[in-house]
Amino acid sequence: MNDIVPARPAHEKGGDADWTETFLSVLAETGNVTAAARMAGVNRDTPYGRRETDSAFAKAWASALEEACDVLELEARRRAYEGTKEPVFYQGYQCGVVKKYSDTLMIVLLKAHRPEKFREKFSAEHSGEIKVVVEYADGDPAYAPPAAPRPGDDPPLDGPV
Q1: Are 37 and 23 in contact (CB under 8 A)?
Q2: Where do the structural domains in the chain lie, given as residue ranges?
Q3: Residues near 100 by beta carbon (within 8 Å), at least 6 away in sequence
Q4: Quick check: pTM over 0.85?
Q5: Burial of 120 (C-beta count, 10 Å sphere; 0-12/13-18/19+)
Q6: Which of 45, 143, 147, 155 sits 20 to 30 Å CA-CA off 1?
């Protein structure tokens, strides 16, 4: 069954204030703008427009998305730490269950929360020569390195004395 609510512009629903609470609540639950807009009964462009012009709404939107991510993180932690039960079948019949843990989710969580210990170590070194080619457009003066000081010249003000 499909619970899609046809989107209507906010002005058909009685003004901006009517849809915002529902939109933000569903956004916090789902993390999905389209689903939140549908449940609030507005076109998905309506909240985007409001976010551009209303800083308080933009902050509430960001907070709702953070809450949605927290829920996902909690579920990832549960699956990694507590595991999930999966049915075991023999000759077409379920004969038991086995608890499976997600090593991948465990690794992702450790990398996120303890990056100093679990992040990927990457190092790049270069040996050899780096050649830089500079091309000048017609009429541009070519770069000339500064001339070496001549005996008797005063030393430059910003160089060694």
Answers
A1: yes
A2: 1-72, 83-120
A3: 83, 84, 85, 86
A4: no
A5: exposed
A6: 45
